[in-house]
Amino acid sequence: MANHPKIAHTTEFPPETEQPNVFPLSWHKGTEKMEEVYEASRREVWDPAALPWDTFDVESYSWEEREAMAYWWTLLSVFDASAPPVFASAMIKSYEAHEEDAVRRCFFSVTQDEQNHEHMCGLAITKLLGYDDPLTYEPKTELGMKAQRNAKWLYFNGGRYWEGYKQAVPKYSLAVLFSSFLMGEIAAATIFHQMAEGAREPVFQDAFKNIGRDEGRHMAICMTLMERDYPKLDLTDRDTITKQVRAGYLFLSAVLFEPPTDFWDLPDDFIEVQRACEAVARDAGFHIPDYETKKENWRQAILNLKGVLDRYDIPFPAIPEVGIDGKEITDIEMEDIIPVF
Ligand SMILES: [Fe+2]
Ligand SMILES: [Fe+2]
Asked: Which of 66, 172, 265, 273 could form a disulfide with 176 if both were Cys (CB 3.0 to 4.6 A apart)?
């Protein structure tokens, strides 16, 4: 500022501010549906700390059960704990792009929701383990030890996508980013509704019900923007979207299905350990859908997305793992990942 020569005494009006400037000084309206989703987000605000934690008697579970349930929350955290910075970056981008007023607010609401989800993961893990860090926690059982090793590998893998994401945000249009986000939102909405229905503990029933509802709103935000922007989509963007959908499948499978081993860098017994943890958690009344149910969910979510992309003639990638054919996409690295939930 100090180096800026003062000009106000030489001219009546200031020169035009160079665009794009990070802050728009306008509140233009456009997509009515965005207002509705934003209003719903205000009505449906919830607080993870205010759930009925006093009804959850963690001591009534064995250490193996506690560690198995904490493992699932840790697995979820690998995705949900990166969501606040990911959506905060997208929110900044919506300001840089001088998006509609309601679009900026919607992105703010997603950022807040995702931080809520991350907060919930932290509360659940801390309660279950009696400790606030699943990676440095001292496991009490054999299964807990193996689960922690799994968690360390998940964290290592997940940690590799942030640098790539930071480069992707300025490079791609919001329209491309939405297609990646939508993949996560569709699948997340389904799995959380199922987990809410099956959960035995009221605190988890409520958490999953709220998280599922949030994800449904996120899905609506992505869909609304796609409907607005896809009819005028650039041809080069189409290829990027096809690739991102395949990337989304590979990345999100780790939590929604099982991690594809040619993409995730994991030890040989990883899936065996994860299945063992899931079985213990399930028997303890923590409802994780079984292999076939997860596979069917994932397939349906992908088909939903395919239905959307088909409308705009965007080629769909082959996902033979769940029986969907399409364009063959290879050579995807962690650094190419955009999807979150
Ligand atoms: Fe989400
Ligand atoms: Fe989330």
From this structure: 172
Give the total number of structural domains in the chain: 1
232 and 244 Cβ atoms separated by less than 8 Å: no
* Position 277 in a domain: yes
Ligand closest to the CA atom of residue 183: 1
Its domain, for residue 177, covers 61-336
| Ligand located closest to 216 CA | 1
pLDDT, tens only, 274-329: 999 999 999 999 999 999 999 998 898 888 888 888 888 899 999 998 888 888 88
CA of 251 from ligand 2 middle (Å) equals 15
In the DSSP assignment, the letter for residue 269 is T
Q: What are phi and psi of 286, to 5 degrees?
A: -100, 105
- Is residue 307 included in any domain, yes or no? yes
Centre of ligand 1 from the C-alpha of residue 82, in Å: 11
Q: Which among 248, 323, 257 has a CA at the least distance from the CA of 289?
A: 257
Dist. CA 113 → ligand 2 center (Å): 7
CATH of residue 316's domain is 1.20.1260.10
Tell me the per-residue pLDDT of 198-207, one tens digit each, with 9 for 90 and over. 999 999 999 9
Whole-model pTM?
0.92
